[in-house]
Amino acid sequence: MNTVRWLLFDWGDTLMADLPGMQGPMSSWTEIAAMPGTAETLPELSARFPCVVVSNAGDSDAPEMRRALDLVGLGQYFRRFFTSKELGARKPDPAFFRAALRALDCPPEVACMIGND
């Protein structure tokens, strides 16, 4: 039996609230907020599993996602950030996930995707 070794988190409305009316990279929004429960849950999860962000984010690239998470005190829980821009495919295309898992040297059967796509 395989056990989970990596947690892959979606970005918008999974980790960070995708607030209406805001445009551009999230790290430059006038207001940003983590989704309810993330600040309480991530310390425990990241202590047991390596956590990464995988996203189709249109305006925020990997460094901007890190900055936004740092602004709400959550950046330290994530080892890597992957976006469709860097991976050359968009979720839910299997090529997106294959590229992220290849970069992590992680077989798919031990990865758990958390989020909307």
How are the elements arranged and paired?
Elements: E1 6-9, H1 38-48, E2 51-55, H2 62-71, E3 80-83, H3 84-87, H4 94-104, E4 111-114
Helix content: 25-40%
Strand order of the largest sheet: 3-2-1-4
Order of helices and strands: EHEHEHHE
**Poorly predicted spans:** none
Question: Care to describe what's here?
Answer:
The protein is α/β, with parallel strands linked by helices. It has one domain: Rossmann fold, CATH 3.40.50. Helices cover 31% and strands 15% of the residues. The chain is built from 4 helices and 4 strands, in the order βαβαβααβ. It has helices spanning 38-48, 62-71, 84-87, 94-104; strands spanning 6-9, 51-55, 80-83, 111-114. The chain has a 4-stranded parallel beta sheet, with helices on both faces. Strand 1 (6-9), helix 1 (38-48) and strand 2 (51-55) form a beta-alpha-beta unit. The protein is globular, with a radius of gyration of 14 Å. The chain starts with 5 loop residues before the first strand and ends with a strand. The relative contact order is 0.24.
Describe, in short, the structure shown.
This protein has 117 residues and is of the alpha/beta class. It is 31% helix and 15% strand. The chain has a single domain (6-114), classed as 3-Layer(aba) Sandwich (Rossmann fold).
Features:
15% strand, 4-stranded parallel sheet, alpha/beta, 4 strands, 117 residues, 4 helices, globular, 31% helix, Rossmann fold, single chain
